[in-house]
Specification:
alpha/beta; Rossmann fold; 2 domains; 7-stranded mixed beta sheet; 6-stranded parallel beta sheet; 10 helices; 18 strands; about 25% helix
Length: about 325
Amino acid sequence: MNGLYFSEGKLSYRTNLLMPVPGKGEALIRVTKAGICHTDLEIAAGYMDFTGVPGHEFVGIVEKAENPDIVGSRVVGEINCGCHECDYCSRGDQNHCPNRTVLGIKGRNGAFAEYLALPEKNLHHVPDPISDEDAVFIEPLSAAYRIVEQVPVRGQNVLVLGDGKLGLLVAQTLEIMKADVTLCGRHAKKLAVMDGTNVCAIRENELKPGKQYAVVVDATGRPEGVAKALSLTRARGSLALKSTVAHPAKLDLNYVVINEISVIGSRCGPFVHGIALIETGEMRLPKMIEKTFPLSEGLKAFEEAAKPGAMKVLIG
C-alpha cells in the first residue's frame, strides 16, 4: 500500500506499507480525499510523539465491513476509538477514553494512505449533494461546532483569534449560530473568505486598544496565542482553546483567577453538526481550498500546507 509515514522525526512517502487489517466491528475504507490540518503539521514537528500514517480528515468508500449494508457507502469517520471497557466508554464518551486510539494522531494509522480502518460505529454516511472536497471539512467543522455545545454564543460578541483553516471554520460556524463575530488574523487572502458575511474580519494591528470580548477563541496554532487570547477576554468571559502545538508556552493564570474567566478546552464534536453546517449552504468551503495533490506527491502537499498563509491543502 502507498502512503505517507512519519517515523523518527521524518515524514516519508512509502510504497510498501501494510494494508490495514480491520478489527472486530471495524470497516476497511478506501480513502478518496484527505485534508492536511495544522495538527498534522504539528505532528510532523513532534506533537504527540506519533509514529505511523498521519491524517484524520478524510472521505472514502467502505470496501469491507461486518455490516454488508454499508459496503460501497461514501463515509467520513469520527477519529476517536475507545476501549469499550472504561467508565468514559460506558457513558458513551469515547472521545475521552484514556485508552483510546485516535486516527492518524495516537496509536492508529491515519488517512494519508490508500486505505484506513475505523470502527463501523464511527462512520457517517455522506449525503449525495456534498462533494468529496466539502466532505473533508466535516471533521474540523464538527470541532468548530463543539464550541457551541460548551459556551453560550448566541448574541455574544465573539473574537476568533487566528485566520488558519480552523479559525475560518469557527468564525463561519459561530456566525451561523447567531454570534456577533470578529475574526482577527494576519493574511488578507484568508480574511477575504469572510467577504459578504456578517463576520468582521480584521488584521491584528486593527484590534481596538483596550477592547475585550465576552467569548474569545484561540485558533492561532501558535504557542503565544493563548496569552494573547486571554488578554482579550473580558472579566467573567469565556476563553475557548482550539490550538494544539508541539511546544506550548507558559501561561500566567493569575489573570484568570482575578477576572474569573472560564477557560475551556475544546476538541472534537459530533459529526452530525458538521454535516448539518455544510447542508445550510452558508459555508464558504471551496474558497478555502489552496491546492489538491495526488497521494504520490504527499510530501509536496505538506510543504505547500506549511507555507505562511496557505489555505486548505488536500491529498487525493
